[in-house]
Amino acid sequence: MGGRFRQPTSRWVGFAVAGAYVVITAITGTALLVAGQRISAADAQAGPPAGAFAQYTDTITVTNDPQTLPRTHTRTTTPSPTTVTTRVTTQPPRTQPHTTTPKPTQTHARSAYDHVTGPAGLRTVVPDGWAQARSTGPGAEIAVDPSNSQRYVKYGGSAIDGSDMLATHLMYEASYAARSDGYHRVALLDATFREADAVVWEFRFTGPGGTQHAKSLYWRVKGVEYFVLVSGPERDWSRMSAVYDQMVAAARP
Asked: What angle do CA 83, 87, 92 make, to 5 degrees?
């Protein structure tokens, strides 16, 4: 029994086959696992597939005049072996057109006064629209407010002798006061007008419409006595005083 070869039984053969299958399966699984790990490591080193994500650089080229020429954007995709250049053309921002507002046409309002030339060449102004005519006395013109005849102005000039100017007007004042109702002197005094001898006479009297206020300026140049005079209702004196100032300022010579 010690040196005789024993024929293996069918049970033993089955166990041997099963054991070999287990060993082969284990070896195959281990090889596949190692190969999978190697493939994963290689993929990790190679990076993502083309097109998975893209890093890009954006280059803007500006032309010489950005206000009138378009801007060009250049985008380059780098991960892929093939470089794709995309040009995007954008129009510059619209600029508001420059508009010029025309200046309003300047219109000159009609002057409130008219320039006039009276007797002896006197030049002055009278309120616009007032009716003009010859007045009583030598060398005198009159302009009357058409809306109220109690508002009027006189102006003119006439030759005189060499008598004292203030004394002459004091005599005339006495004559005028004798024939006028409610005469009251405000002022009668010597003055100088444009370096010429002058007299200012201001007074009140009673007129058809009530108290009337008057003021006049007399001055002498080369043997001629010139004058301007304004008169109006006392209630309108501020207005008439302004007329007096305008007439005196414009008076020549």
From this structure: 155
What are 177's two structure tokens?
Answer: 């006061």
CA distance 34 to 40: 10
244: helix, strand or coil:
helix
Tens-digit pLDDT profile for residues 91-110: 555 555 555 555 544 444 45
- Is the Cβ–Cβ distance between 188 and 176 less than 8 Å? no
Q: Please give the residue range of the domain that contains residue 138.
A: 113-250
| pLDDT tens for each residue of 165-210 | 999 999 999 999 999 999 999 999 999 999 999 999 999 999 999 9
Phi then psi dihedrals of residue 91, to 5 deg:
-80, 145
For the chain, what is the domain count? 2
Whether 239 shows a pLDDT value over 50: the answer reads yes
Task: Check residue 213 and give left, alpha or beta (phi > 0: left; psi -120 to 50: alpha).
Answer: beta
Q: Write the CATH number for 175.
A: 3.40.1000.10
